[in-house]
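Why does residue order matter? Because the sequence determines the fold. Keep that principle in mind as you read this record.
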Amino acid sequence: MATNIAKPSNGRLTKKAGEANMVSPTNGMYNTLCQSLNLSNKSFQMIQGVLPVQSSAPELYNYFDGVPPKSVGVLYEGNPLNTLSGNYATMLSKTEDTNTFLYKIAMSNYTNSNNWIGGNMGTNPVYTPSFKELEQLVEKGSTATISFDSATSNDNIENSWAQSNGSSGVGFWGKKENSVSKSLNEIASASRITVDMHFNKYAFIPVRAGGWFFSGYFTDMYQNPDQFQSDEDWDKLFGPSGSLQRVANQVLLVSGYTITVRSWATYSQSDFEEIQKSTETNVWPFYTSGSSSKATSSYRFNDDKSISVIITSAPGNLQIFGMGVIPTDRAVTGGSDNHVLKAPSRLI
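Structure:
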């Protein structure tokens, strides 16, 4: 159920000053994407902050490699720090018997420079599909037009796989609550927000780790904790607080988009100029309008003193807007429609 907020005749929402945050709008945007693009809230994760890339596989693959945190939305300000390839390297270093057939294959594959873009082991892991294939799959994808209105959106994520958006961005005019100005973010998030999106082409594509990863070894280590040097080593990866609880198995890629974001709060001319000129301005929900982005942004001070931002990325620039997430136990064992999360299976 959407949060009940009084809607006065001017169409603006009202909250008490100091109570503003982006939790409800972000939840609503997540649900809107799931509904509009027919994505499952049992496995989809909205991605924020990833800038468009044109022809570089590593920039995409490093995000595929990230271990998804337990959140329906994730803000990335750089490459993920917790990765499948990094955890896999830890597993290799903590294997008790290094003379087994599975270990020898795994180590041979991991140390093969052909399985790393640039040839440096442990840096820029190869994933599939290839970058060229990703471009082709997106080009063959669908077109979408999506509308979001914080006044009417459903912000309930209790039935989602994560039941939290704790890793999402928290500001409206920037990634942080004090980006540009804390008071301007409070004004924006306490008021009505609308977002109109047009995706030129998009596709939700299965992804898998490349040749550096050997599924037989990984599965054996997961299912047999005694293969580790100690029980603690297994727990640090797969236990309740382990670093490898989930893996990414799909990616939502968009080629070419126009996103119009409107904050229906009342602003002054000086507010508008501060927002327009600040180097910290990077507008919710995806934060792809920053100064370092390949996307272009234009700002409009409307007659009713609201502010609109139009963010455009040209076709051919692949943009990550989301990932598919699956629990590691199901990635290893597979699953069925009766699985508690009913997420797509991955043959890891």
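The chain has one domain: 23-333.
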